[in-house]
Design a protein that fits this description.
single chain; alpha/beta; seven-stranded mixed sheet; 7 strands
Length: 149
Amino acid sequence: METLNVGDHAPDFETLDQDGKIVKLADFKDKVVVLYFYPKDNTPGCTMEAKNFRDNIDMFKEKEIAVLGVSVDSSESHKKFQEKLGLNFTLLSDRPKEIVKKYGVLGLATAKRVTYIIKDGKIVYVYPKVSPREHAKEVYEKIEELKLV
């Protein structure tokens, strides 16, 4: 499956977060959602990207924008990753690789580094290639540019 496009319906999902709690995309129906897929916890690029969202999370929270990181790692791995880096946003586990398939971001064995901005159940912007270093600011600026909040 190919990456989803602007205007496509954002497929709903139900999965576990880093605390073992069930999370559904529908839980965020009245919010702008940054759904960012990344390959693996504790790898250099993924660590850089997670720290970038961590360090910039206040501007997202101020506008009630939900940031959700998704990989095929387990909830337990996510919990350790969150604690190690002091992450202050939700990490979602997609062990069965259902979400990555629905969103067209399944690589050889992990998720590709792709970010979707979602509002009202629709994809409003796609980053098919992501540079992890300044990605959070880039996403926030795009949300403002598109006047989504």
